[in-house]
Amino acid sequence: MKKIALLIILLFCTTCVKQNGNEYFEQIKKNDVALAKPTEGDWLYSHKEKGQSFEQFIDSKHIVPTNNSNIIYIRPIGNFNSLQNKQIELLREYLEIYFQLKTKILETVSNDVIPESAQRIGYENNQQFLAGYILDNVLKKDKPFKRIALMGLTEVDLYPKPEWNFVFGLASYRDKVGVSSIYRLQDGKLTTDNFNLCLSRLLKISSHEIGHMFGLHHCIVADCVMNGTNSMSETDKSSARLCSVCQRKLNSGIKYDNKKRLLELQKYFKSNNLAEELKLMQKDAAAIQ
């Protein structure tokens, strides 16, 4: 009888844990904003994607942190000024909160690592690097201590293949590496006046690309940082927030404290004067009270 009673208690407790774990996502779901029907120029207008349900994510192969693999790294590539370096440090701080994993900045490497064969002059008469070359020949070989994900960050524009004008970033799901460029995020030149807008863009692009490394596909249901974007204007309109379903995916693998993460994001956005992002976190915080 004692064994039966103990089993009942264990089953009851397991059920409670599952309910409590899902409760957070049910509470913040009310703040999800359904995507409008795509119009010409939007990502989903030209990319007919099927999306990814939570169940499909669970059934997929995706990385989870272990004692030997639990640090996110940023590898700057190029020549960055003081304002840009400030943004890179703020990005490091953000990613550590966003993914609830230790995040470190590696030593900056020179643009000389990119050969002429992986460079071109783009349609706007600007220098561009081939994103795939950086993934395959620079980042895949870069294996710092306990690396779970690695993102290269360039100040030079990127292109994915000859017929494309540019790409904000590119990631390899299998190898858990990605690269993003700050070139188009900075409106020509980063200044104190556009610093916050450019920082917001960098946070969105980088968390999106690293989200792919953790197995998240593009979100096609709600306004979400995992939405695909075709342009800077579409990126500006998109949310820095993960929708409730994508948050549940990320949390299922990393298993962090959802409330702790939310409150830390709220504090980060407030201290860096990112008003729109702060409002989103405040709404979620209000929903879980």
Labels describing this entry:
10 helices, three-stranded mixed beta sheet, alpha/beta, disordered N terminus, 289 residues, five-stranded mixed beta sheet
Q: Would you give an account of this structure?
A:
- The protein starts with a helix and ends with a helix.
- The strands form two sheets. The protein has a five-stranded mixed sheet, with helices on both faces.
- The protein contains ten helices and eight strands.
- It is of the alpha/beta class and 289 residues long.
Order of helices and strands: HHHEHEEEHEEEEHHHHH
Described by the principal axes of the CA atoms, the overall outline is globular
How much strand?
5-15%
Number of helices: 10
Biggest sheet statistics: 5 strands, mixed
Mean pLDDT value: 91
- The order of strands across the largest sheet is 2-1-5-8-7
Distance between the termini: 40 Å
Q: Helix share of residues?
A: 40-55%
Radius of gyration, Cα only, in angstroms?
20 Å
Secondary-structure-derived class: alpha/beta
Number of strand elements: 8
The low-confidence runs, each spanning 5 or more residues with pLDDT under 50, are: 1-20
Condensed summary:
This protein has 289 residues and is an alpha/beta fold.
Any chance you could write out the topology, listing elements then pairs?
Layout: H1 2-28, H2 43-46, H3 54-59, E1 71-77, H4 82-99, E2 102-105, E3 119-121, E4 127-130, H5 131-139, E5 147-154, E6 157-159, E7 169-172, E8 177-181, H6 195-213, H7 232-237, H8 244-254, H9 258-271, H10 275-287
Parallel strand pairs: 1-2, 1-5, 4-6, 5-8
Antiparallel strand pairs: 3-4, 7-8
Helix pairs in contact: 1-8, 4-6, 4-9, 9-10
